[in-house]
Write a structure and sequence with these properties.
Elements lengths: L14 H7 L6 E4 L3 E5 L7 E7 L14 H17 L7 E4 L3 H4 L8 E5 L10
Antiparallel strand pairs: 1-2, 2-3, 3-5, 4-5
């Protein structure tokens, strides 16, 4: 995979930034100049893959207009990965958590692709 072009921001401040740069190993399933996707080390389902922008964007609240191409790429690549993982027929869930109440644990925007089993309700009642 080509190394990311990450001239816009230093993504070294989180573990995800280090994965993007290749300084921490991960099971990378996709990488291009805008995004990197890798398997979650603590999967919550048979398929659990994270997609992160190569540029550090801390939360959804930090997204700017110039990030639209990156977010669009994240969605398109999520669909491609889901199909490649065999999730297209039965479905899957895409999740972006934002800040403490949203359950965000790593402050580098990321999208979870979760599937391979029937998923429960999105929010506990």
């Amino acid at each position: 995979m080509p190394p990311p072009n990450n001239n816009e921001a230093d993504s070294s401040e989180t573990v995800f930034g280090e994965i993007v740069r290749g300084t921490i190993s991960a099971d990378v399933v996709y990488q291009d100049e805008l995004v990197t996707a890798f398997r979650d080390i603590q999967p919550r389902a048979p398929v659990h893959i994270l997609i992160v922008p190569n540029k550090t964007i801390r939360t959804m609240d930090d997204v700017k207009q110039e990030d639209e191409a990156t977010l669009g790429r994240m969605l398109r690549i999520a669909a491609d990965i889901a199909r490649n993982e065999g999730l297209g027929k039965n479905g899957y869930r895409l999740i972006i958590n934002c800040k403490e109440h949203g359950g965000q644990e790593v402050y580098h925007l990321h999208m979870h692709i979760v599937g391979g089993t029937r998923l429960g309700r999105m929010v506990a009642q």
